[in-house]
Design brief:
heterodimer, A: mainly alpha, 2 domains, 3-stranded antiparallel sheet, two-stranded antiparallel sheet, 11 helices
């Protein structure tokens, strides 16, 4: 019980660092503050002042210098001012070489990468202990953490994988479960104070969508391709001489991962922006009386975000399952059904 | 614009991490869990089927029992009926036998009585004859004494020899 109270207190306390963070004396710029909070960074900033920022490893690759690894604190001097280091400097969160004409690829363990590693460690910890439950209670009802996750796993299997993919669901189930829990865990962790906005970063969502896209294309059977290039049930003059339908269908193949990318990214980022905007109101009006109202709305938004975290993970998973299902479906009997998938 | 520009570094790390997640969780977590769930579902189904089978077996046993009971009841009724028929027959026979014996005893008795009666009558007849002879003898002995006395004597003797 105590741990729940602690968790909720920690979570609500996420509201307060933001309140404290922006008192610099200079004019308050809500756009800049919000961007700073939802974007990736080479530092993990918890609070202002001493020990409030954690350095992260910078990993750079360039053709002339090879791989370079150093702490991101090298970009700060003792007066906490940004300075160049070894021919690089940070500009708007990006590492840029000082020399003209040099290009460098940034493989740094940024805040998002570090947060993602943490979430994966948590994911492994949780699910290895869930699996241990199956070893211990073989053939018996689930216990403890196992009984919390089993209904969710069964839901993904029985309500997401089987209805959408059909009899070949077993091949895709590990992927669907992985993607569901990865997104959900990262969405939830993103709500913690000081946490990174992992699933609200377009690079992350793009990568996840590309995974779904590649799996779909690799496993697609001839009916799937036939459906794209020679759509059944469509008049011939839409295919020859101008291949309108094939082009439309081919575009559809790529809009699916694109929509997956943008949907998750936009939903999560929007939630963060709304909460941060609510807090910005306090500083825009420069009145303490706006505070309670802002906090009230932010708490409400936080609860909504808890739901959105689950919902978006579910949507990403079920859409992936639908795409897999469309790719491996054996025969096209119902055209109306196909329209729904898009 | 930074917000919607995917960074190469993050894509790289995301790919590596997520591949690791899929492979490791897939091999060591999801597969074993799927198998465990399937095994458990199978065993539950098996148990349910076994229970159903046992129930049917029970029902069949119950029906068999019912049948046996019914048969036993019929048999019992038959036995009782047979017994009662036998008993009544035996009773009838016994009665007849008894009747017969009784009749025979009565007949015998009657016969005996008849014989006894005859014997008695014969005896009486003999006695009467004897008495008559004695009386006659006495009368003859005393005769001539007195006519009236003779008569009185006869009277007296006759009284003595009243047939009783």
């Amino acid at each position: 019980m105590r741990i729940y109270v602690l968790g909720i207190a920690l979570w609500l306390s996420g509201l307060f660092p933001v309140l404290a963070a922006e008192d610099h004396g200079e004019a308050f710029n809500p756009g800049e503050m919000i961007n700073h909070h939802i974007q990736d960074s080479h530092f993990w900033h918890f609070w202002d002042g001493p020990y409030g920022t954690m350095p992260l490893p910078v990993i750079l690759y360039s053709t002339d210098r090879g791989i370079e690894v150093f702490s991101s604190f090298k970009f700060y001097d003792e007066h906490h001012q940004l300075v160049p280091w070894q021919g690089y400097q940070i500009e708007h969160g990006h590492i840029i070489p000082l020399e003209e004409g040099r290009t460098v690829i940034d493989f740094s363990i940024t805040k998002n990468v570090a947060a993602m590693f943490l979430s994966v460690i948590l994911l492994f910890g949780v699910f290895f202990s869930v699996r241990k439950g199956y070893d211990r209670n073989a053939g018996k009802p689930p216990k403890g953490i196992q009984s919390f996750f089993e209904p969710i796993i069964l839901f993904i299997r029985d309500e997401v994988a089987i209805p959408n993919i059909g009899s070949k669901y077993e091949k895709y189930l590990p992927y669907l479960l992985s993607i569901f829990f990865f997104i959900w865990f990262n969405n939830m962790l993103g709500l913690f104070p000081g946490a990174a906005n992992v699933t609200g970063n377009i690079a992350v969502t793009l990568t996840l969508a590309v995974f779904t896209f590649i799996i779909t294309q690799i496993n697609a059977n001839k009916y799937y391709w036939q459906h794209i290039f020679n759509t059944p049930g469509v008049p011939w003059w839409l295919k020859i001489p101008i291949p309108i339908m094939p082009v439309v269908e081919l575009i559809g193949v790529f809009t699916k991962p694109f929509s997956l990318t943008v949907r998750l990214f936009a939903n999560i980022t929007a939630g963060h922006i709304i909460i941060l905007s609510l807090f910005s109101l306090i500083f825009i009006f420069e009145s303490i009386w706006v505070g309670p109202l802002s906090v009230l709305f932010a708490i409400f938004m936080n609860f909504l975000e808890l739901f959105v975290a689950l919902l978006q993970a579910f949507i990403f998973t079920i859409l992936s399952a639908m795409y897999f299902g469309a790719a491996v479906e054996e025969h096209h009997h119902d055209e109306g059904l196909e329209q729904k998938v898009v | 614009m930074d917000l919607v520009t995917p960074g190469i570094g993050l894509i790289f790390w995301q790919t590596v991490t997520f591949l690791a997640v899929i492979l490791i969780l897939g091999k060591f977590v999801w597969r074993p869990i799927m198998n465990a769930l399937k095994a458990r579902e199978g065993s539950i189904e098996e148990a349910l089927r076994a229970a159903e089978l046992a129930r049917e077996e029970m029902e069949k046993l119950h029906a068999d029992n019912e049948k046996l009971m019914a048969e036993a009841r019929v048999e019992r009724d038959q036995v009782i009926k047979d017994a009662s028929v036998l008993a009544s027959k035996m009773r009838e026979e016994a009665r007849e036998e008894a009747n017969k014996i009784t009749q025979k005893m009565i007949d015998d008795a009657r016969h005996t009585i008849q014989l006894e009666k005859q014997a008695a009558i014969n005896e009486i007849r003999n006695q009467v004859a004897e008495f008559s002879l004695q009386i006659s003898e006495k009368i003859l002995r005393r005769n001539l004494e007195n006519e009236s006395q003779q008569k009185a004597l006869i009277e007296e003797y006759l009284k003595d020899m009243k047939l009783n």
